[in-house]
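Today's session is about reading a structure prediction critically. Students often jump straight to the picture, but the first step is always the sequence itself: look for stretches that repeat, for charged clusters, for runs of hydrophobic residues. Only then move on to the predicted structure, which in these notes is written as discrete structure tokens rather than atom positions. Here is the chain we will use throughout the hour.
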Amino acid sequence: MNIGILGAGGIALDRHVPALHAHPDLTLWSVLSRDAARAAAVARGHGAAAPQPAHTDVRTLLADPELDAVLIATPDRMHKAHAVAAARAGKHILLEKPMATSVEECRAIEAACQEAGVTLAMAYHMRHHMGHRALKARIENGDFGTLRHMRIHWTFAAPDGENWRAKPDTGRWWSLAANGTHCLDQIRWLMGPHCGEITNIACIQSHAKFDSSHDESSAVILSLESGATAEFFVSVQVASPSRVELYADDGWARAEDTMGRHGSGRIDTHAGPIAYTPANPFLGEWTDFHNAVTKNRSPEVTAAEGSTNVHWLSRIQEASL
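Below is the predicted structure for this chain, in token form.
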């Protein structure tokens, strides 16, 4: 399967491209960047295999009949245009989170993919962390009993306020789009099947370090249909170790330094540590995407779930006003 990369930024080059090269049935085929020299350098440096691998115009990249699918890792405000164009060109799509910057944009993406009959998968790589998958299996087995509360803490220190997520023409959210969308997905993935949908939201945000118009820190509290609660704190203001905590009637779990791109960290429970073999979560999501396309099945994270995530991000933002 030949893959085109739309957006030659850090997440694409540092994580997705190595995962592509590690998969026996995937080939890095072509690269899109706004800068022609960068597109050529990335294509050459990472071994893109197309006869014409470097592009600055998405239309020429998508017109290639040998291209099968694309990774969309462009700024959030560009997701709708790029995803709709890819779908109409008949290309399958792995779309970096969040899906878009509004529910209306998500619906347009979903409609284009359905009309074209192409697969769209959302790139929530934390679902492919082997420790988190082992924790989910314990939850599904009933090892913890009735779930009562989940807490996630995940921050990093941005060097300045110039990140594209802090700019209104390229992003809508900063801390929420960088890390919060993953936290929300983990809460829905682990607690949702047992605790139901979100019913109430409270949010406090800070803009104090960079004076950004977008969220620099977000402290979010959620209630669920079962009466369970959840919370997460995300920030671009400070660096700190990540932590995930789960509390239930018959036990607890605490994951230290598992949130991130690395696929490692420690998970302890009331019954002792969870043993697992760390693996590349980005290779996991590419394997899932390949299987979804070739076996005609739903991916781990569907377009519908991506749209629901954006709905709740929007509600969280509204709750902070």
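Discussion point for the tutorial: The chain has a mean pLDDT of 98.
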